[in-house]
Design a protein that fits this description.
heterodimer, A: 335 residues, alpha+beta, seven-stranded mixed β-sheet, B: 195 residues
């Protein structure tokens, strides 16, 4: 007989007290005794944090480590890396909520498989490709890049991936393709930040774009992992762009579409606030955001006793590699 | 409302600070940027207390009771405390007390200047909050203390200008707008009654 009957004393696994909560129950009792009720309730909710595995679990990758002896390419920097917990717990990914800890908290149900990317526009080989087809021909390598957010904080992160140029060349873009545009997934079921129909956080889908020469530049990187493992959901699983000389909002996450276009593509933040976020968004300490200074940034993690406030460098320190792309361009006008 | 009740109001207003200490000591702040968490926490509670302070008068008018009136001074002074801590935290944790940094921020980030103005406007209110000062200033005391309105408006502008995501600042600004509107409506209906 294969009919399972439940015994009267059976309890569902989901009702079992999480081990972490059980182990700290005494701390909670002491807290309740010595502090306000509010404090102990808050502490309990922290301990009740979901300890189940997220749907997208980072798995180890095979890759070629970055060459630490070679400096001219910009692929490596000696600066201290942001620890893994910092990189994966402090994110701007409004599809999962606008708080810095929201993407890590609200992406536990996000599945990076099955995934496909649709290629369209001015190219020979358009169509829909599965993630496996996208990734198969490329050998993975490590790049250690600075990532500078427009909010004036930055991190140094060891990404795993392959050059964007190598990917784009496979689709044989025509000479009429002067720009390339990218699009992020729209799926309110998996992405809680996209659920509200009254107050749209951003006009989904999130889109970004690059000029063709920027996309073909050696620094432009398609990342599939960080710290030697595949990307967690909050960092843009399974596939994201890294353009290290531009503000972080250009490094679009969870890419589902790539479009080769004749004209400059519309980009989300430029759509929301055109005077504040431009198409180029090159890191530039001499061109301020209208509402705050871009002359300094804080390198995270920062502590209460060490603010890690450092001057921002032109093109985020990649001036040597990318300045030629913008020769003669008024960067105050094309911000 | 007697003195003991006022002390309870003080305790209530200081509870968020106790919670903040718990967050700091218990390592519940973000690993990446605890300084910013503290500044943001203090800023939000400053604005909340300012809004609570501005709610007391309309509430008393609607309930035709003056029992909560003495709370305005307590809540207002606590709001001033939170704002001062917020400014101190910003200077310490986000700017690191570098003179160059402070000057750059004041000149190049307009929201900093607006925030400082909001704080500065409240200082004379804090200084003249005693009964003795009220007696000494006479009619001018009431006019001086209307500065809380422009201060609250500046605080909301400060919040809007520093945010990349506008949903929360717009929410607080709407509440302030509603409170100001309510105040004007009550005043106008009073004036009509008396005329």
């Amino acid at each position: 007989m294969f009919i399972r009957t439940r015994t009267p004393w059976h309890i569902a696994t989901s009702e079992v007290t999480p081990e972490s909560f059980y182990n700290t129950r005494r701390k909670l009792m002491v807290g309740a005794g010595s502090g306000a009720l509010l404090l102990s309730l808050r502490a309990a909710s922290n301990v009740h944090a979901d300890t189940r595995s997220p749907a997208t679990v980072p798995t180890p990758l095979d890759y070629r480590a970055v060459n630490k002896k070679e400096n001219a390419s910009g692929f490596y920097t000696k600066e201290d890396l942001a620890p893994y917990t910092v990189v994966t717990q402090y994110n701007n990914f409004y599809e999962f909520g606008t708080g810095k800890s929201d993407p890590a908290k609200n992406s536990r149900q996000f599945r990076a498989k099955p995934w496909s990317v649709s290629i369209s526009g001015e190219a020979e080989h358009t169509g829909t490709y599965t993630l496996e087809d996208i990734l198969k021909p490329h050998a993975l390598e490590e790049r250690i890049y600075r990532l500078r957010c427009v909010e004036a904080w930055s991190m140094v992160i060891p990404w795993i991936g392959f050059p964007l140029a190598a990917l784009l060349k496979r689709f044989a873009p025509k000479s009429s393709a002067r720009y390339v545009a990218f699009e992020t997934l729209v799926d309110p079921e998996q992405m809680p930040g996209q659920r509200s129909r009254v107050f749209k956080i951003l006009p989904w889908p999130y889109t970004e774009g690059l000029r063709m020469d920027e996309a073909m530049h050696p620094l432009s990187f398609m990342a599939v992992g960080l710290y030697g493992k595949t990307l967690p959901a909050q960092n843009g699983a399974p596939l994201r762009l890294i353009v290290p000389w531009k503000y972080g909002f250009k490094s679009i996450k969870s890419i589902v579409a790539i479009h080769f276009s004749r004209t400059e593509p519309r980009t989300t933040w430029n759509q929301v606030a055109p005077q504040e976020y431009g198409f180029y968004a090159n890191v530039n300490p001499k061109v301020n955001h209208p509402r705050w200074s871009q002359a300094f940034e804080r390198r995270l993690p920062s502590g209460l006793l060490s603010t890690n406030r450092i001057p921002t460098q032109m093109f985020n320190g990649y001036e040597e590699q990318v300045a030629s792309l913008y020769q003669g361009m008024d960067l105050r006008r094309y911000y | 409302m007697n003195v003991r009740a006022q002390w309870w109001v003080v305790v209530l207003c200081l509870l968020p600070l106790v919670y903040l200490v718990h967050l700091i000591l218990g390592n519940h702040l973000s690993v990446a940027d605890p300084g910013r968490d503290i500044v943001k926490f203090l800023g939000l509670w400053s604005l909340r207390l300012l809004l609570v302070c501005l709610t007391i008068r309309p509430l008393c008018d609607l309930l035709s009771s003056t029992v909560l009136f003495p709370c305005r001074r307590t809540v207002g002074l606590c709001a001033l405390l939170y704002i001062s801590l917020h400014a101190l935290a910003w200077a310490s944790f986000l700017v690191g007390w570098s003179i160059d940094g402070l000057i750059t921020e004041i000149i190049e980030s307009p929201y900093v200047l607006v925030g400082m103005l909001a704080l500065i406007l409240l200082i004379p209110l804090g200084v003249t909050s005693t009964r003795r000062a009220r007696r000494a200033l006479g009619a001018y005391w009431q006019r001086l203390h209307t500065l809380i309105y422009p201060s609250a408006v500046l605080a909301c502008i400060h919040f809007l200008w520093l945010s990349k995501d506008w949903i929360t600042p717009i929410l607080y600004t709407s509440i302030l707008f509603a409170l100001l509107l309510l105040r004007i409506i009550i005043r106008l209906s009073r004036a009509r009654l008396h005329s």
